Structures are given as C-alpha cells and as structure tokens.
Here is the input.
Amino acid sequence: MTRVIIAEKPSVAKNIADALNIKNKKDGYFEGNGYLITWAFGHLLQLYDAKDYDLKMARWDLKNFPFIPSAFQYKIKSSPKDRDKEDSGAKKQLKIIYSLMKRPDVKVIISACDFDREGQIIGDTIINSLKVNKPIARLLLNEWTQDEVVKGLNQLRSNAELKPLQDAGISRQWADWVIGINLTSVATLKYQLGKGSALNIGRVLLPTLKIIYDREKEIEKFKPETYFKLSVLFRTKQGEEYEGTYFEKGKDKFTEKEKLLKIKQLLSKHATLVDKEVDKKREFPPSLFNLSNLQGYITSKYRGWNSSKVLKVAQALYEKKHITYPRTGSTVLEESLVGKAAKVLEKVKGGLPFENEVRFTKSKRVFNTAKVESHSAIIPTYVLPKSLTKDEEIVYTAIKNRFIMQFMPIAEYEETKLTTRVFSEHIDGVFVSKGRVQLVEGWKKVERVQTKDSLLPQLAIKDNVEVVQPKIGTHETKPPKLHTEKTLLRLMETCGKGLENEESEEMLAVILSGYSIGTPATRAETIKKLTDVGYIVPENKTLRCTELGKRLVETFPIRELFDLEFTGRLEKTLADIEKQKFTKESFLEVIFDFTTKAVETIKSEQAKIINEVTPNKKSLEVLGKCPLCGEIIIEGKKGFGCSGWKKGCKFVIWKNDKFLASMKKKPTKTMVKTLLKFGSVTVKGLTSKKGNKFDAILRYEKSPDNDYFNWKMEFKK
Here is the structure.
C-alpha cells in the first residue's frame, strides 16, 4: 500500500523524507518505503476575485455593492507579477499532487500541513478540489524531528475529525474576503479622490490602527502636573550613606513646595532608625514564550527587528527542526510532554557554566494541559543547531534560555525597608528607604539579569544617623508612552484585558477563550500591512499614526470595525467554531448581514475625502547604456531594464534577482550604474549559506547562446 503525504512547504516534506530515510527525490516529490511525499508552497489555491464571479465587478461601481457570492470558489493562485495570470509554479505543483493522489497504488492521502486554521485549509482546499474518493488522514505534529514524525505517522487521525478546524479556517477566510472586498471598494469609491492604491479596510486592520491612534490622542490630551519630593541623605556612624524620601500620611508626592520648604528648615542634624522591615522573597522566571511574547522580547531588545522578522526567523528554526511550532498563544506545555522536555533539557544544558544547577522538575508553572491553547509554548527540540545565521542565533538563544530558566533554582532576595525619623517635634512624617539584596541568583544567571535596586547599610532599630544633605526635587507627571510592537502585540493578544500582569489569571482566561485581535500567526502581518498601506509609520521602536491613518479613524463611519470588543467577539466566535460551540453558517450569516448594512451606511453617507491620490510622475534617471541594443537603462517597478523593451530588447536586472537574493542582497541603482559603466561591480556584505559575510566582484554577462544574462563572481586577489 502506498500513501501520499502533502506537506505545507518543501522544507517540511524534506524533513518527513529524512525521518523515513527516503532519499529518492523526483520532480515535485520524494518516493520510497511506501510513501509519496509532496508539498505545497503555502496556499496553492485562492478564492475567486469578484470579477471571476461576474464580469461587471471588473470595474468598481457603487451600485454593484454589496457583492456576496452565493457559493465561494477557488482557483490556482495568481502570479505575483500579474494578478490576471495563474502562478506557473503553483499550477505545475498542483498537477504533480493531483497525479500522485490519482495513482491506483495510492490507498490513503495524508495532510501534513501545519496544525492550525491556515494549515488545515491549505491541505483541505487542495484535496477537496480533486474530489478523490480515498481515505484522508491527518498528521498533527508540533515539531519536525525524526522521533515525532515517526510517532505521528503511527498515530494518524481521520481528517474528518478536523472539520471544526476547517470550518473556523474557512469562516475566517470567507469573512475577511467579504469585508475586505466590499468595504475596501466602497470606501475607496466614496472617500478617495484620484486613482491609485485603495483605501484598505479590514476586520483586524482597523481596530489595531485605533489602538495606536488612541494612545497618540491620550498623549496629546495629557496635561503634565508638577509635584515635589523631599529626600535626605543620611550617614551612619561607620560613614555609609543612604537616601530616604519623606512620607506623610502614606504619600511622598506634594503639590505645594512651601510645605516641604518648611519641613526642610525644621530638619535637625540628628535622626534615628525607628523601623526596619526585612522580607525574604522568591522571584520566579518569566514564563515560556508564546509567539507574541517572543516577538515583544526580541523587538524591544534588539534594533532593526519587527514582529514579522521574528516570526520569519522562528518559522525557519521550526522548519530546520530546532524549535517547536512557533505560532502558538500558550506559555505552558502539555503534561504529555514531560518526558520529551526532560530529554531536551539534557541536550541544551550541556557545557553551561551552571550546568549542575539545571535540574528537571515537573511543575504546574511549566506543565499544565488545562492552560494550553491548541499548541504548547515554544521550546527547543533535541536537534541542536550546528550552524545558524546571526538572526537565527538571536531567536534560538532567547527560546533556549527561557526554557532553561524554568529548571534553575528560584531567585531569592531580601527586600529591606528602613524608616528614619528626624529629631523634630514639628515634623509629622518619616523618611522611607527601600533596597534589596540578592541572596540566590538562580535563573537570573542564564541571561545575567541584574537588579537596579539600591543596597542599604546594615542598621538596627534605634541606631542614630546624621542628616547630611536634604534636597527638594521638582517632578512632572509623565504622559503614557507611544506604543511599541511589544505593547501593541500584548493589547492585540487580549483586547486590552489583563495588560498589567502578563501572567495574570484574567489575561490567561482571555487568551484561552480566543478573545483577541487576530491570531498569533496574523498579528505581525497586520502591523506590517498597516505600515505598507500608509496608516502607521515606525519611529525608532515606537509606532505612530500617519495623517491618513488619523483621518481614517476620525472619518470612516463603520465604528464597529474600530471597536476592540466587536473584533474580540468575532475572533472568539472563530475559536468557538473550532470547539464546536458555534457553527460556520451562523458566523457567516452575521458577517454577511454586517457587511450589507455597512455598505449601505457608506453609500448613504455624505461624500468626504479621506485620501487624495495625486499622480506622481518621476523624471526618468538614466543609469547607463544597454549592453544589448544601446538604448538607455532605467529603473522600473520590478527591475532595472532597457527602455527599448517594446522593440524586443530583453535586458533586465530584476529587483528580486534570485542569485543576489540567495546572498541576501538586492540590486541598487548605484550597483547597476557601476556595472553598466565598468562591466563589473564590487559588492560588499554578501551572505554565504552558513551566514558568513563576504565581499565579491560581480559581472553580468550575456549567454553565448541567447540574449539572456547570468551572474559571474570573482574574488579580489
């Protein structure tokens, strides 16, 4: 009996083939040991465009909306270069998959796409489009190591059991299509002057924009208030010094400076320690990473990172078998993973200077099935990396360290509070000093976490100290800070609930219920799209609204789309469909009704301009002469090409050139100019497959057999 396995990506198909010791690679699949292992490239099929259902929809016209198909259909995904053409690679791969599924010796089809909504519908749309009458099984894995692949293939589930996950995925896909197509089209027609990019409207896009907008408004409206503090530097008999802040009736901030000036004048030189509180406290490590926490940690710690980049690097580590599934919302592990976690810990702790302090224990803080949302937290696998790029090293180390921390001793510290009273019968308050002493470093050794608390001298109650230097400090209340990707992701994850403590039970309950904006897999994409469509702009590590973004929030009449509660309820309903608490049909009925009413509201609105698109005609910069025909070379949208292309000249250097992309470079105007003038160009900072940087001389030479060009590389002697 032969079985077909459909993986989501070629790299995953290779992992499965390696696990089964299958080396026989053919065009579009591996074959051996009773398996045919093929792959998709993510979505090979996409929903029809509106014009595919009805040609009148090829031209946007208000009277044609709302437009909701009676039955949704799929087609081969469009070419990224031309939306009206099929992607040739997707078309070829689908033919290969179909031919394998139809083979008479194939008795079972196995979907091995990612275990989430998107993965489910990627596999299901391919399999269902062929309508093959064969049993369909589902391989559900959290990592692609050999042990897990072999174990998973022995524990296959019927794909029919995953119908609720498919329903949730399709509901999300169809809902976003209906809202996006209708409201983007109608809003662009109604509120945009001039032709150009559309006014993007989306179910997840707008509430995320509103979060950023609201924070900026809070900052604009904020009025700073001045307050004063009185502090005193005390000196012990041994010459040690410590600072105390004046407290009266439980407060240390005063709006009247005169009051503190009087107290300062009443201060004598002598004071006594009247109270000393010493509390021994324990400090647990931060929880294991879910995707949002990982993105927040990396983007706040390292420059040049955004949440999309973190996800991309984590996905690469997952496909290389070094970490578990990254698109998770959980910060704990299922209890069934106890044995596996112990095995991984033995591998990753080897050679650490504190290796003898790393001890495996089963605790509810780490292992708690009740608190797992679909997938467990992100941890390393037993497959240790031999070579990583710098970016992969950053993300892998963060995940590995966070995992090791869970099995280190709990940090312990002594928190001390000193209360000092100055000799004066007219002063009611006291001076309070706080500090801590680290007793057990514990898990903090892993990343050398330092505390910033001040150290206090050893004093006993009734010890006398000297007043050395009193001072009154002037302070201002500070406005809230602009959102960073870290704070934005946290708010998206919980719709703003449980923000103060990321490990609070309230926040956990919200996450587990699915009440959020988007999913771990889509939040980074949402932030990126807000930037791409011009609604927000990154500024250092913070995010700000553009003028267009502000106008959209202030003007667009469908207020529900800006409402966190509304969006949170929709996302929770999708989670409830997965749990069979709600039906796909009921959800889509709500979406279609909402969209219809929203379209009618926009159409009946008085016309106003949110966005004005002005034609931007650039003067063409001549980069050099074409080596084929002598015409000028100019920059186009997708490449640097010959202006004589209409006459048949084929010279072009594509901006997404695969040769350069393999070394993490893109052609620039300067590079092309130099190349055309001198025939070669020195390119610095190329990246090898192992992640090492190097410089090289590149030439772009014509093939002797045709008019196409190929790159040649040389190194300086």
In short: The CA atoms of residues 333 and 376 lie 5 Å apart.
